[in-house]
Amino acid sequence: MNDKLTLVETEPKNWQVWLPVLVAAVVWWLAYQTIQPLANWLAYSLLGLSPETHLGQAVAFFLYDVPKILLLLSGMIFLVSTIRTFFSPERTRALLGGKRQGIGNVLAALLGVVTPFCSCSAVPLFIGFVESGIPLGVTFSFLIAAPMINEVALVMLFGLFGWKVAGLYLVTGLAIAIIAGIAIGLVPHVEDGVEDFVWKMVVGKNNLDTTELTWADRFAQARQNTQEILVKVWLYVIIGIAVGAGIHGYVPEDALASIMGKNAWWSVPAAVILGVPMYSNAAGIIPIVHALMEKGAALGTVLAFMMSVIALSLPEMIILRRVLKPRLIATFVGIVATGIIFMGYLFNLVI
Amino acid sequence: MLILLILFKNMIIKVLGSGCANCKKVKAMVTEAVQELGIEATMVEVTKTEDIMGYGIMRTPGVVIDEKVVHAGGVPSKQQMLKMIQDAARV
């Protein structure tokens, strides 16, 4: 065996763990302070564009928003990923065990936000939950909240719309997950909609090491996770913001008021139906949504579109088809879509 | 006889997952790690949901060495992968 494969590690000291994180935080903050003046300087001085022209505005907007969103994403995803190292599907399942409908749905939706989840694991997770006796409705609350309220969506909403809209998205997303889960649980004979093999399956036990992670492990995992997500979304962010910048600079104000405004009653359901077959991540869709809103589209309509794109995606339904019969998938889509449409109308009415 | 058994002890490494991008990555990592460590091992892909659930994991990809679950969910670092296989080889 050669030297580089000896894996005897010495425990890193406390300061060795925290110092890099602190330094990164300071660098991050400094960079965040610099991007606005830098974008203006690049657009108006270096490129010599006028702030009065459409082109100048669009370019400055693009040069500011891209680094801003990428910085926000890297910082926040690191933070969220660190928090998530305290949770796991196994722990969530244990927490949900023995909870009834109602309180179980609330807990499941909340845990859906913080539990690490990838739609590729939806099937084993579903079976693991159902086999351990967690009610179907509670399982669905988790499966709705987990993809819909993800850190990328929240960070982008915060970066482009501010904390109020981001908070609104969080709260209504939770509400839809809770209510839709309860509603699914109330459907008569809902268990029959689950493929029969799921009930017959024998779930094994394992003694996977569950030793407590150190902070060094947590930061290492969070860093890796942040890197993975950024690699996956950066291109969507740039394309999304470029399209958004184009709309920002060129499309006249209120151009969309008649088709996506508050007064077009049919726009909310239309936005939801349009969103279902579309598969995009929050990173690509939100900058465009932002630009649409500036041109007169109503907030409720726009949020409904976004939720429908993220929460009701075709690929996820194909994955769930392995454990659910078509009838239950239809019920699931119907109930969640109704919830989203209702939420859209509510916002258009209130705001 | 015992010596013979030890000599021919072939490690069986199973990668659990139904063909997602991360599962493929883990598969490639296992192959690479086995080569690097110079261990005799057979790699088996487990893709059927029923078989995966038999190991009681809720996250894929999973790694099972000689019927013992050593990893579930996400792509481990190269160091972690090497350590898992080394630890199992020592037993």
Please characterize this protein's 3D structure.
The complex is a heterodimer of chains A (351) and B (91). By secondary structure, chain A is an all-alpha fold. Chain A has a domain at 89-200 and 249-350. Helices cover 72% and strands 0% of the residues of chain A. Chain A contains 16 helices and no strands. In chain A, helix 7 packs parallel to helix 13. The longest helix of chain A is centred in the middle third of the chain and has 36 residues, at 215-250. The model of chain A is unreliable at 1-5 (pLDDT under 50). Chain B has a four-stranded mixed beta sheet. The mean pLDDT of chain B is 81. Chain B is of the alpha+beta class and 91 residues long. In chain B, helix 2 packs across helix 4. Chain B has four helices and four strands, in the order αβαβαββα. Chain B has one domain (9-90): Glutaredoxin, CATH 3.40.30. Chain B has helices spanning 2-7, 21-37, 49-53, 78-90; strands at 11-16, 41-46, 62-65, 68-72.
